[in-house]
Design brief:
The protein has about 290 residues and is α+β, with helices and mostly antiparallel strands. It folds into two domains: about 1-160; about 170-280, Rieske [2Fe-2S] iron-sulphur domain (Rieske Iron-sulfur Protein). Helix content is about 45%, strand content about 15%. It has nine helices and ten strands. The chain has helices spanning about 1-10, 15-25, 35-40, 50, 55-65, 70-95, 100-130, 135-160, 170-175, and strands at about 180-185, 195-200, 200-210, 215-220, 230-235, 235-240, 245-250, 255, 265-270, 275-280. The strands form two sheets. It has a six-stranded antiparallel β-sheet. The chain has a four-stranded antiparallel β-sheet with strand order 5-6-7-8, with no helix packed on it. The protein is elongated and about 85 Å long. The termini are far apart.
């Protein structure tokens, strides 16, 4: 029943106009370097799941205290902590959400609505407690926890079913066979342009520089599997055409988000006029022809 409902949310198009407007608004926020900070590029994975632990933990603890007599003040303090922590968690989630696929955004919007309802209920609960209406405050708190749980179900679907925030290049080191793989003749790769080749069905981005050096990365962007071979080259980097993540060609490092994981990188060498690549995790180059 629940999976069927969530699948229906993915396919429900009536909120798309709202999604478009909200996405534009979030992307227009003057966050500058703070955007990558909120994406979690510094952490190596999205920071939003880490930030939500504070409000969820605080509100759950408040519910436990509400079940015990004489702990209303402590429960109110925990609710206040959760409300204060909800804002940065929501901002980080919104920044991630603005760079998702449409079906993911649909689920994310309902997730955000559930959590917004939770914040409203907990704010009302705290107001009642301040006024001495403890019973009403407890009731609103339990309703808020129900809304949080609903938001958690939606967030779990977004993360685990739809793979939002996952590293979409993680499988590459597991499926690329060890050793060198010939992927084409040198003449097939014009200088200064991107090219797409495969190693055992794993797409590989190949770039030949003007000086003849070759670079190769996993072709599917770690953010949401965007085609890097259709991206643009910028100062020794490639920019994903879907959401603008930037990766350094020399080592695959994600120099700009929303990607939080680097791209798997391949060593390259030229043998008998043909380009060969090897996943860099196999170790350093075996001879002087490796680049």
């Amino acid at each position: 029943m629940v999976p069927r409902f969530l699948d229906g949310v993915e396919r429900w198009p009536r909120g798309d106009a709202v999604i478009d407007a909200l996405s534009r608004g979030v992307r227009a926020l003057p966050l500058r370097g703070g955007r990558d900070l909120l994406h979690g590029r510094w952490l190596g994975h999205p920071v939003h799941p880490l930030l939500v632990q504070v409000p969820v933990g605080s509100w759950l603890s408040a519910a436990v205290l509400d079940l015990r007599p004489g702990r209303a003040r402590e429960a109110g303090s925990l609710i206040a902590v959760g409300l204060a922590a909800a804002a940065p968690a929501a901002l980080a989630g919104a920044v991630d959400w603005a760079d998702l696929h449409r079906r993911q955004q649909r689920v994310g919007l309902v997730h955000a609505l559930a959590n917004t309802a939770a914040v409203g209920l907990y704010a009302a609960s705290l107001a009642c407690r301040v006024k001495g209406r403890t019973k009403a405050g407890r009731g609103l708190g339990f309703l808020g926890l129900t809304a949080v749980a609903t938001g958690g179900v939606l967030g779990g679907h977004l993360a685990y079913r739809q793979a939002a925030g996952a590293n979409h290049a993680e499988e590459v080191p597991q499926v690329v066979p060890a050793g060198w793989h010939r992927i084409g003749s040198v003449a097939e790769f014009p200088a200064g342009r991107t090219a797409r080749r495969t190693v055992d069905d794993v797409p590989v981005l190949v770039v030949r520089e003007a000086d003849g050096d070759f670079y190769a990365l996993a072709e599917r962007c770690s953010h949401l599997a965007g085609p890097l071979s259709e991206g643009t080259l910028e100062d020794g980097c490639v920019r994903c055409p879907w959401h603008g993540s930037v990766f350094r060609l020399a080592d695959g490092w994600n120099v700009q988000g929303p990607a939080t994981s680097p791209q798997p990188v391949f060593d390259t060498r030229v043998v008998d006029g043909h380009l060969e690549v090897r996943l860099r995790e196999q170790g350093p180059a075996e001879d002087d022809t490796a680049q």
